[in-house]
Amino acid sequence: MTEDAEERPGRQLGVAGVLAVGVVLLALTALTYGLHRLPHGAWSLPVALLIAGAKGLLIALFYMHLREQRASNGLVLLTSVVFVAVLLTVCVLETRTRFAPTVPPGPFPVEPLPGRLEDPGGAKPPGPAGPREP
Amino acid sequence: MSPPAAESYLTDGRTVWSWLTTHDHKRIGLMFLGLTLFFFLLGGLFALALRIELLTPGRTIMGHLAYNRMFTLHGVTMVWLFMIPAIPSAFGNFLVPLMIGARDVAFPRLNLASVYLYVLGASVTLWGMLEGGADTGWTFYTPYSTTTGTAVLPVLLGVFIIGFSTILTGLNFIATVHTLRAPGLTWMKLPLFVWAIYGTSIIQVLATPVLGMVLLLVALERVVGAGIFDPARGGDPLLFQHLFWFYSHPAVYIMVLPSMGVISEAVCAFSRKNAFSYRMIVYSTLGIAFVGFFTWGHHMFASGQSTFGSGAFGAMSMLVAIFTAIKIFSWLGTLYRGSIALESPLLYTLGFMFFLFFGGMIGVAYATTSLNLHWHDTYSVVAHFHFIMVGATVMAFLAALHYWFPKMSGRCFPAKLANGAAVLIIFGFITTFVPQFLLGNLGMPRRYADYPPHFQSLHVASTAGASLLAFGFLIIAGYLAWSLKSGAVAGDNPWGSEGFEWKSASPPPTHNFSTPPKYPTGPHEYAREEVPHAA
Amino acid sequence: MPPEAVTEHWGSEGARRQAAYLGMWVFIATEVLLFAGLFTAYGVYRSVYPEVFRAAQLTMDVGLGTLNTFLLVTSSILVALAVHAVRGDRPGLGGALLLAAALLGVVFLAVKGVEYAHHVKEGGLPGDAYRFTEVPRVGASLFFTLYFLLTGFHALHVTVGVGVLTVLGVRSAAGTFGAGYATPVELGGMYWHLVDVVWLFVYPILYLA
């Protein structure tokens, strides 16, 4: 019952297929760049990411041979993508729903920490909020 | 006992070099076992030092700074050097190929590399300890970890390297279970321990890289002032906690799932019955592995997380209890009207079930945000996670150590002494940690070297329990060491277990099987007529 | 690979290949989650400082970024052709294509180096070193920190990938691989495609939108 590699040579791309996928990839790259020249809005990031996702899917399916392989290999990739989405979405949602901001400019002064006093060489004092003047 | 058909893995090559360059999963598992036991001893000594300091209010044996370093070292050693590799890397390596009828794991050289990465990471961590150790707690919370003057860097680096070791182990097990099962061994016949290790490997592979990245970010913040988590530059310390717990909460299941696997095997073997509900145990294993990724925010209820986040994480955390309860009921159902053999592994199993149930139920209370605020950062939380980490994982580790000791060494240990030690350990555990629940509920905060005098009686009780535990571990170390040389020869299957790993000789020959084993209809084959629950 | 040892360990040639593919996919999953931490940090800080991030983004050199994207996509096509050639028992052609892809990777790194030099001159540096006067607001240093982390980690992966492709290319040209033994080329190719796909996501969030 061990898993063997699935032999589906019919699903391997020929040179023409590889090149066709390549042309689509290049065209999608050009499309992202072209859209960037248009005025930006709330939709520009989702659209750009969607195009990137489409390119990634093409590469995974055809160039990384997922189409010829067992479904379990695709499941590995799918799982990793799902968990990236979970981590990203939950963290962003949580940050956006806080009552009181915990990130500056917040309602609190930035103070040096007591641990730093023991060994002044061990760490740098936090500077004033924001980048320093040159 | 029939003479072994082939040279045992222990005697096939006797030089140190043959061990250092071995690709044999059994030797690698044994090396992991030795290494993790060493760090268990080290972490236990740190714990004893903590308990002695807390024996009296005020200074007993160390000051506040030393205490901070000591509890950090205890946490780092126990979590990363002992518990995470203990069952998967040691017992998983030894048993998974045997249980699935393979000659070895899928990538033996990667397996050896994971030993060396572990040794490297552990050495770097030890070096950090000798440099004075960190005083951040094992969680390395920013901004303290990026500003304190102690030796955080080597400890971070060590943990980072150990992360790679666990990733390699997890990758290896996933590929092994997929591709090296013996003919006829389908997924739904896999031993429950293999399922548990498989679920654990998924968590290891998915979560550990995030830990690696976040540790690297803290290191960069310390070295070059990258400022990702620094509020002075607009950074958010809570983001560190998010990324850290995205790994470290599932890491709890890296420790607990393999323990559950051990218990599933031991319950079947010592009640002479097939698992009450094999499929439910399998599905709840995968369920815990999945849901475990959605609960990390319950560590952040009191740190300024949004109410929405706390509510969602709290509700998701309670789901874990459902899956755990399914397992506990399945084990109880297996024990029910079984032919019980009250050996030491079963004693630890019973301890495990009680502690997991008790600690888990309290965990449900902690997942309630309002109650959590009362208990947050008190000894109550310390007791809760020690119920899971020590009460469950260490009990399962001891169960595994006793159950598979004859498999690994070919020797028996004195059973009566072992039962006595098991009872001692369980009582020591209860005496150590139940007072801590009470302390926390009264308001004793965790991570303090000092306390007002009215807490002293409970602290003394806890320290007394810790001494009992230490004494119990000494007895175990004593008789196991004695049995290695002088124990009775065990024969191939001293417990009369139907587990697949017992189908080869004990200790197994280097290539496990001379002919690939034939697999029966189910994961265990205890006689069907002994299963009376149908009535 | 002596076939006898293979069947002893794996049971069959198909199992060996499936283990190699599956192991590689699991490795790729760990890489994806390694970058996930950085993408999450980007998402969180962008949602906290949307205007600052947009302002910082407008100072990026989109031309060089787009050039790099085309370089990586082209190299990915070359690698896919190389795998096809090796599978078709033409390891010489495959080796040449792999080396060409590695060369494109080197050009990518060179372009990245030029960009880094610009940032150093302007002061768009991470954390403590931030001196960029054009976007002097809280949060902008975070954008540049994340820029350097994302592109830096990616460049590290490109460097490793160039090494892998070079070794595979040389060995392939020497005739080590062929229709019967293409797995290393396939796995090396998968790694390079992963490096490409990561860039495909880094490119829009840092340069475009």
Automatic annotation (TrEMBL), chain B:
It is a multi-pass membrane protein. The chain crosses the membrane at residues 28-52, 72-98, 110-130, 150-171, 192-220, 244-268, 280-301, 313-334, 346-369, 381-405, 417-438, 458-482. Pfam families: COX1 (PF00115). One of its GO terms (molecular function) is cytochrome-c oxidase activity. GO terms for cellular component: membrane. Residues 11-520 form the Cytochrome oxidase subunit I profile domain. InterPro entries: Cyt_c_oxase-like_su1_dom, Cyt_c_oxase-like_su1_sf, Cyt_C_Oxase_1, Cyt_c_Oxase_su1_BS. Coiled coil: none annotated. GO terms for biological process: aerobic respiration; electron transport coupled proton transport; respiratory electron transport chain. Its main location: membrane. Keywords: Electron transport, Heme, Iron, Membrane, Metal-binding, Respiratory chain, Transmembrane, Transmembrane helix, Transport. It comes from the Bacteria. Gene3D superfamilies: Cytochrome c oxidase-like, subunit I domain. It is found in: Membrane. Residues 500-535 are annotated as: Disordered. Residues 525-535 have a biased composition (Basic and acidic residues). SUPFAM superfamilies: Cytochrome c oxidase subunit I-like. The keyword Transmembrane helix applies. Belongs to the heme-copper respiratory oxidase family. This is Cytochrome c oxidase subunit I.
From TrEMBL, chain C:
The keyword Acetylation does not apply. It is found in: Cell membrane; Membrane. One of its GO terms (biological process) is aerobic electron transport chain. Belongs to the cytochrome c oxidase subunit 3 family. PROSITE patterns: COX3. It comes from Corallococcus aberystwythensis. InterPro entries: Cyt_c/ubiquinol_Oxase_su3, Cyt_c_oxidase-like_su3, Cyt_c_oxidase_su3-like_sf, Cyt_c_oxidase_su3_a-hlx. Its main location: membrane. Keywords: Membrane, Transmembrane, Transmembrane helix. Residues 1-209 form the Heme-copper oxidase subunit III family profile domain. This is Cytochrome c oxidase subunit 3 family protein.
